[in-house]
Write a structure and sequence with these properties.
With 256 residues, the protein is mostly helical. The chain is built from 13 helices and no strands.
């Protein structure tokens, strides 16, 4: 009998789960090899487009003079005051929310690769549609606001280091939110709560896997920095591998 995602979460909440570091890493690495080139190209193109768009907005708002070094120094966040800081925070949160379906598409690409199904450019943008778009945006908005408020309070208290740690902790506890929405069909709040439950049951193993995936993705900086675009997909393969190893997709509890 097929169990729902909610039933699996309840079982994990009560009994926990076991996860093997080596098996998950191998699954993530094998999956990464299948998506590295295509996903890397998509991330590169998307980053270039965003960079051009951001540059255009700066020029349109502040003029061509914004490109000189002195003006760029004035555009640093620590130099923002009053209304500019508020506009910066709102813009950053909105941009993060609007981009939230993009990593969801990368995780879906990892799923297609694991199932030996074809994936295309449209796969990356698959979740810019109902009902996923709204849930992804809501979850990202809630996480961003909660993290930003806590970090800001601690920053203004003069303990910025703690604020940064809190932000990283929130990101760590909620990193399974996206796969829980797109694969588990959970609503935003339920996905966030479920991610916290899952991560809190095996924090050390999961933290170790994420640290390794982050270090591996940074290898792209060696030699030519453009390589980072082709190593970043390893992080999303790791998210996928962790999810299927704990929750599974459809009737499977783990890919062999």
């Amino acid at each position: 009998m097929m169990r729902t995602t909610q039933e699996k979460i309840e079982e994990i909440k009560t009994n926990g789960y076991q996860i093997d570091f080596g098996n998950v890493f191998n699954l993530a690495f094998e999956n990464y090899k299948k998506i590295a080139l295509y996903a890397g190209l998509m991330i590169f193109v998307f980053s270039v487009i965003l960079g051009l768009l951001a540059g255009g907005i700066v020029i349109y708002t502040f003029g061509v003079s914004a490109l000189n070094e002195k003006m760029l120094d004035n555009l640093k966040t620590e130099n923002f005051t009053g209304i500019y800081m508020i506009l910066y925070i709102i813009s950053a949160v909105l941009l993060t929310c609007l981009l939230s379906p993009f990593p969801a598409g990368l995780i879906k690409m990892a799923h297609c690769a694991q199932k030996d199904e074809e994936f295309h450019v449209s796969t990356i943008f698959e979740y810019y549609k109902k009902p996923y778009f709204a849930e992804l945006v809501i979850s990202t908005l809630l996480i961003s606001i909660f993290s930003s408020v806590l970090s800001s309070i601690l920053d203004y208290s003069g303990i910025k280091f703690v604020g940064s740690l809190i932000a990283m902790l929130v990101s760590f506890l909620t990193f399974l939110t996206i796969p829980l929405i797109i694969f588990g069909n959970l609503k935003a709040v339920e996905a966030i709560k479920s991610s916290i439950i899952i991560v809190s049951k095996q924090p050390l193993v999961l933290l170790g896997l994420l640290i390794v995936s982050f270090i591996a993705s940074m290898v792209g900086f060696i030699g030519c920095c453009i390589g980072i675009f082709f190593t970043i997909p390893f992080i999303y393969s790791m998210y996928y591998a962790i999810y299927v190893s704990i929750i599974g997709i459809d009737s499977e509890t783990e890919f062999e």
